[in-house]
Amino acid sequence: MASARTPSLGEGITERIEEIQQLAQSFISNVGRVMVGKAETVELVMVALLCEGNLLLEDVPGMGKTVMARAAARSLGCSFRRIQCTPDLLPSDVTGLQFYNQRSGAFEFHPGPLMANIVLVDEINRATPRTQSALLEAMQEHQITVDLETMPLPRPFMLIATQNPIELEGTFPLPEAQLDRFLLKLGVGYPSAEDEGEILSRFREEDPLVELGAITDGPSLTVLQTACRRVRVDESVRDYIVALVQATREHPDVKLGASPRATLGLHRAAQALAAMRGRGFVTPDDVKYLAVPALAHRLIAKTEARLRGHSAEETVRSLLAQVPVPVEVV
Amino acid sequence: MSPALRRCLVLSACAGMEMGWLFLLCRLVAGVVGLRTGEVAAAPTFPPPWVVLLLPVSLGICGLVRRWVGWKAARFVAWAAVGAALMLGLLSLGFNTALYVALPAYVVLWGAGLRLAFGGTARETAVREFQLGIVALVVVLAVSYLMDLELQHAAPTAAACLVLGLLGVAFANERGSMGTLGRGRWWGVLLLSVAAVGGVALLAVAVVTPGVLETLWQAVVWCGRKINTALAMIGNLIPDPTGGTGATPPAPGAPGAESEIPDGVLPGWLLRIVRTAFSIFVVVCTAAVVWLLSRRLFAFGRRATQGRGEVESLHGAFRLDLKRWARALANWLKGFFRRHHFGQTAATLSQGPPEIASVREMYRLLLRRAARKGIPRRGFETPCEYEATLAEAILATSLDGEHGALRRLTNAYIDARYGAVPPTPSELQELGVAWRRLEHHL
Fold first, then answer.
1. What pLDDT is attached to residue B324?
2. From its phi and psi, is residue A225 left (phi > 0), alpha (psi between -120 and 50) or beta?
3. What does the longest C-alpha to C-alpha distance in chain B come to?
4. Does residue B159 contact residue B206 with C-beta atoms inside 8 Å?
5. Are B146 and B274 in contact (CB under 8 A)?
6. Of B9, B26, B55, which Cα lies nearest the Cα of B282?
């Protein structure tokens, strides 16, 4: 019962949280028609949607990264554009450009694919740093600047990027500033044998992605996004989030720890997850659940740690096993 | 040679080295105490065979236990039992071992053995033990002689320990370089081999024909007296601030001059320096033992905290641990004073509705009872994670009802603690029932 586990947060919040919970369940089951056995990953995609955060999907080819992004976009019933990144892609190909209309005798703006609610940037690391940087403003401030003119992007806005960690030839690694702008970084992972069999049977005759319908629309999603911000975060849990992020900056294996943007991101993501689980308050379990996808990609490991094979995920996990959780003192 | 056997031999050899110099140290402690009362102490009689054979064998047993049983508590208990049996055996056989020697000796023996049994015996460890043993041995022998202590058993014990130490180094370096003793230098190996052979021969002589050793010992004493005479002569050259003339050196060539040199001819000030130096040495050794033991303890604590089998040795980790533990202690003390003197915890709990305070207090009671039962909540565990741990540990054999009760209490606590959601009166009543069900298991 969501209502029984919701503190008094103001008018109508209980209903909103119930709506968010129902939407999350519908979203997971809808996307689950295409992405078999990946409920946890889909749940995290929903977290990013509710936070209006950007998402980085990193995995080897063929795991369904693009399919997941497309399924998420179709489920939301929002405008969707796809950018296939290549080394010759220019910033104006992404943002749009001003052109001279001979008929009207004036310059007009021709919008690029960024002018959409959901933008899928496929194989983002194939774009040059110049083009990658053109995305920075859109990712953080939800606006673009073309020829000194700043234009807001449609809301809600979400950028879903995919990249392949194996094939590095002809790619440009994402700079730290860009990585930091992704709320979550997720991997899809191989399906189990049972799930793979299910995929075969579902995709035998036709592509279920084509039949995927929308479960909500942009304005409704915006309302729920606003409601998520009202989920209660107890002072002790807030301190726990801060302690966790601070600990990344003091870890001996880490050269550069998580930024304040990461603290904000983790805080908002925990609020969204709590609401999706029908709670009006955040628990330390929510924070722990989200810590690896929200923090690991923002850490820069020291060379020694990298040589020892210590990954950023392991570092965050080790911190989760060290930072004390706020519980009663015995 | 199998790795297990090799490990046991290394452990035994290192133990022999450690126990040997510790044995001599204990003798000196006894001697110093005796000298302070104006008497030359009767040396406590730790006979060499006991020290040489029993201790390494016992540590070898510990090594085997470590290797094949793999249960930490078994090693712990095994070493404690062996140490206790040894000390009891010595005492029951009528050896005049004073309590002030026996007790610290036992404690340090236990600690050192534990360190060896628990710690990895790397090449560096063996070399370090060897070097420490050599330095201690030289200092102990020199000071013993200068203080004119009874050295009847010291020499063979020291020699045997030296041999054991060398064997330890040899085994430890079986497939490696010579470490700090002679990295890659052939003459280091040769020197050690010769010393090892000489030591083994000396040990054989000590065991088989004590008479020969006695003769050797007389020769050593004679040399020592010569050195003592020379020191006394040097001492007489230094003006005595009290106006005394000091001992008169015998006329060169006078018959029986050597036998007329009394024991302890060194001037008092020199003896005081020697005693001071020896005291410093004892303090440093004790500090070293305390340091090493506490390092192991901290490492053990860190391992328990992190739940990992092995802990990587990091530069500065011990210092960081100390800081962390000190901070934890300070926090605990702060909490203690808050609870017992200022009542701030009660005030914190009483914030908000009384139902919330009740739930939080109930959960606190659960944590306390579980901790007493031996399953404390680890600092990084959330209530949900702790629920799983507790259910697995305590309620493994119980019915589903207890699991449900634990889950109900945990959920109520989560709602109250993080959501400030108070339980309804009926829920509170249910929680009371749940607590009573759980109480039997805690």
1. 72
2. alpha
3. 109
4. yes
5. yes
6. B26
Give mean pLDDT in consecutive 10-residue pieces for chain B, a chain of 442 residues: 55 55 54 44 43 53 57 53 56 47 50 51 52 54 52 51 53 42 43 56 53 59 68 56 42 40 53 62 62 62 49 56 74 64 44 74 84 81 88 66 80 88 83 80 72
Q: Reduced to 3 states, what is the DSSP secondary structure of residue A255?
A: strand
- Does residue A328 fall inside a structural domain? no
Q: Does residue A262 form part of some domain?
A: yes
CA distance A43 to A29: 10
Q: How far apart are CA B361 and CA B345, in angstroms?
A: 10
Both tokens of B414, joined, read: 């989560």
Report how far residue B169's alpha carbon sits from residue B181's, in angstroms, rounded to the nearest whole number. Answer: 10
CA angle A280, A285, A288 (to 5 degrees): 125
The secondary structure of residue A232, as a DSSP letter, is: B
Query: Which amino acid belongs to residue B207?
Result: V
Q: Is A160 exposed, middle or buried (0-12, 13-18, 19+ CB in 10 A)?
A: buried
The Cα–Cα gap between A22 and A3 comes to: 13
Residues in chain A whose Cβ is within 8 Å of chain B: 4-7, 232, 234, 236-237, 252, 279-285, 288, 318, 320-330
Find the angle CA(B332)-CA(B338)-CA(B340) to the nearest 5 degrees: 100
Tell me the β-bridge partners of A158.
Answer: A118
Tokens coding B311: 């802990």
Q: Which amino acid is at B405?
A: A
- pLDDT single digits (tens) A213-231: 888 888 888 888 888 888 8
Tally of structural domains, chain A: 1
Q: Closest to B420 (Cβ–Cβ): which among A7, A288, A322?
A: A7
Q: Could you give the CA distance from residue B96 to residue B98 in angstroms, rounded to a whole number?
A: 6
Would residue A330 count as lying in a domain? no
- At position A9, the amino acid (one-letter code) is L
A254 inside domain: yes
Res A293: pLDDT: 92
CATH number assigned to the domain comprising residue A164: 3.40.50.300
Q: Answer whether the bond into residue A156 is a cis peptide, omega within 30°.
A: yes
Nearest to A282 among B345, B384, B418 (CB): B418
CA gap A110, B345 in Å, rounded? 64
- Judge residue B399's burial from the number of C-beta atoms within 10 Å of its C-beta, 0-12 exposed, 13-18 middle, 19 or more buried: exposed
B15 neighbors B114 (Cβ within 8 angstroms): no
pTM of the model: 0.55
Is the distance from CB of B361 to CB of A263 less than 8 angstroms?
Answer: no
Interface touch B415/A5, C-beta < 8 Å: yes
Q: Is B181 exposed, middle or buried (0-12, 13-18, 19+ CB in 10 A)?
A: middle
3-state secondary structure of A100: strand
Instruction: Give the DSSP per-residue string, A41-55.
Output: HHHHHHHHHHHT-EE
Q: Do A252 and B314 touch (CB under 8 A)?
A: yes
Residue numbers of the domain that contains A17: 3-206+214-320
Q: What is the ipTM of this complex?
A: 0.84
